[in-house]
Design a protein that fits this description.
With 112 residues, this protein is mostly helical. It contains 5 helices and no strands.
Length: 112
C-alpha cells in the first residue's frame, strides 16, 4: 500500500510514469524502506496504464460491493415506574470495573 501511495503522490505531482527510484526516494524521505519485490510488481502492473482509468474502473467495482449500512440498532428504552433497580444489577457492574482495572497493567505501557 505504501508503494502505491508513493506512486500516486508522484503521479499527482506531475510524474506520469514514476520509476522505482522515484518511489524509493519518496519512501526514504519519510524513513520507510522499499520492498524490492513489491515495488517491481507494482511498476510492472502499472506500466503503460492510465491511472485515471484504473481509478474509475476500481470505483465502479467498489460500487457493486455491499457495504452493510443496514441502519442503526433499535433503541432500548429505560424501564418505567420510577422503582429502584435491584441490587443484583450493581454487582456485575462492579465486577466489570475490577476486570478493567486488572487489564490496565499488563507489564508495559503504550508509550514506553
Amino acid at each position: 500500500m505504501k508503494h502505491l501511495a508513493a506512486y500516486l503522490l508522484l503521479s499527482l505531482g506531475g510524474n506520469t510514469s514514476p520509476s522505482a527510484d522515484d518511489i524509493k526516494g519518496v519512501l526514504s524521505s519519510v524513513g520507510i524502506d522499499a520492498d524490492e519485490d513489491r515495488l517491481d510488481k507494482l511498476i510492472s502492473e502499472l506500466d503503460g496504464k492510465n491511472l485515471q482509468d484504473l481509478i474509475a474502473e476500481g470505483s465502479t467495482k467498489l460500487a457493486s460491493v455491499p457495504s452493510g449500512g443496514g441502519g442503526g440498532g433499535a433503541a432500548v428504552s429505560a424501564p418505567g415506574g420510577g422503582a429502584a433497580a435491584p441490587e443484583a444489577d450493581e454487582k456485575p457492574a462492579e465486577k466489570e470495573a475490577e476486570k478493567e482495572e486488572s487489564d490496565e497493567d499488563m507489564g508495559f505501557g503504550l508509550f514506553d
